[in-house]
Amino acid sequence: MSFWETKGRIFDIQRYSIHDGEGIRTICFLKGCVLRCKWCCNPESQEYKIQEMMVAGKKKIIGQDVTVREVMEVVEKDRIYYRRSGGGLTLSGGESLCQPEFACGLLRAACETGINTAMESMGCAPYETIEKLLPYLDHYLLDIKHTNAKKHEAFTGRGNELMLENAKKIAASGQARLSIRVPVIPTFNDTPEEIRDIALFADGLPGVEDIYLLPYHRLGQDKYEGLGRTYELAEILPPAPEHMETLKQMVETSTGLRCHIGG
To answer: What does this protein need as cofactor (predicted)?
Structure first.
């Protein structure tokens, strides 16, 4: 069977995005995740199974089984925009590495047809899994949420040891451009000391030049109610713009990294 017929499960395809990679991008959201981050804005991505979610008072089916070829038919529609803007295909989720064969097929199809590729991921899988995707990946957008394993586990359900080790291996491979992204979550990791620790770790990775601080928001809160779940951070307010700017300046004075707010 050709890799173009590899099947996977997605919950959305978003066209004309200017986030999650450079230029205008098409983002394919894969279903399934090994973490349970308390602030997750896509809770419908966490379970691999197809679900029902109440949206605006109506039941909506979340999850669709598709082939690599079917996704690429959507991606191809905007090739002219990728060429003009430097954009392309981005895989997101969930955690794309939970469907490694499908993710690899999508990246390979894009790569072999001349479309730029990016993947937003926590790196939470055996490195052997990641290694198979790297030849087809232009830009790895790797989330690093905390350097403290116990606090990471308390807020995400798992420790961070595997992710940090994989970050070192991905950087050492030199196969894909690596950027670090940090969701800035009050009560979890929004102190200058915690962000500095992450930034120093990122600065020690060969080839890493950019770090993105992503301010916490509550845009996905209604989805929890739609899934019959409780949103645990309902009382937490997004960080003030002034605080984000302070963190950005601290990163830039402590490291040689370019620091971006959002992205």
So the answer is: [4Fe-4S] cluster
Q: Are 190 and 250 in contact (CB under 8 A)?
A: no
For 166-210, write each residue's pLDDT tens digit.
999 999 999 999 999 999 999 999 999 999 999 999 999 999 999
| Helices of type H across 136-228 | 149-156, 161-173, 192-203, 221-226
**How far apart are alpha carbons 178 and 197 in whole angstroms?**
18
Query: How many CB atoms are closer than 10 A to CB 3?
Result: 16
Residues composing the chain:
263
> Percent of the chain beyond pLDDT 70?
100
Is residue 178 within 8 Å of residue 142, measured between CB atoms? Answer: yes
Torsion of CA 248, 181, 209, 254, to 10 degrees: 40
Tell me the average pLDDT across 87-105. 97
pLDDT attached to residue 48: 97
* Contact residues for 202 (Cβ-Cβ < 8 A; gap 6+): 144, 180, 208, 211, 255, 257
AA letter at 221: Q
Strand, coil or helix: what is 120? strand
240 φ, ψ (degrees, to nearest 5):
-70, 150
The pLDDT assigned to 7 comes to: 98
- Strand 64-67 and strand 139-143: the pairing is unpaired
Which pair of tokens denotes residue 238? 């997004």
Give burial (CB, 10 Å; 0-12/13-18/19+) of 209: middle
Kindly tell me if the per-residue pLDDT of 1 is higher than 80.
Answer: no
Compute, in degrees rounded to 10, the torsion defined by CA atoms 125, 126, 129, 134.
Answer: 80
